[in-house]
Amino acid sequence: MFTQYKYWYPYVSPHDPCPPIKIKSYSTPPQLYIAFQPIGLPQFPTAKEALMHGTLWPQLYSPYPNPQKRNEKS
Q1: Of 1, 58, 66, 68, which is most buried by a Cβ count within 10 Å?
Q2: Which three-class secondary structure string do you get for the chain?
Q3: What range defines the domain where residue 3 resides?
Q4: What is the CA radius of gyration of the chain?
Q5: CA separation (Å) from 2 to 12, 28, 37, 62?
Q6: Which InterPro entries match (predicted)?
Q7: Would you say 31 and 60 are in contact if contact means Cβ atoms under 8 Å apart?
Q8: 24-49 residue pLDDT tens
């Protein structure tokens, strides 16, 4: 199983004049983990649902991170 969000903990210097960002993160799209589109890949049941997610296939859906939650982890 893969995760779309990666986190790392950068070095925090005791002499840094700025407040440190203790946890940094980035997201990776699901397309990186699927080499090609397999035959019979499940699809969203309705066109409306597919349009709301921006893709026809649930495995390729990648939500945008919530900036509010991202700031809470810092």
Answers
A1: 58
A2: CCCCEEEECCCCCCCCCCCCCCCEEEECCHHHCCCCCCCCCCCCCCHHHHHHHCCCCHHHCCCCCCHHHHHHHC
A3: 1-12+41-73
A4: 18
A5: 28, 10, 17, 12
A6: Spore_coat_CotJA
A7: yes
A8: 888 888 878 787 878 888 999 999 99
Q: Is residue 55 part of a domain?
A: yes
Number of domains into which the chain is organized = 1
Longest pairwise C-alpha distance within the chain: 56
**What's the CA gap between 22 and 29, in Å, rounded?**
24
Judged against a pLDDT cut of 50, whether residue 74 lies above it is answered with no
Residue 48, in any domain of the structure: yes
pLDDT at 67: 54
Domain annotation covers residue 32: no
Mean pLDDT (whole number) for 57-73: 69
CA distance 8 to 26: 9
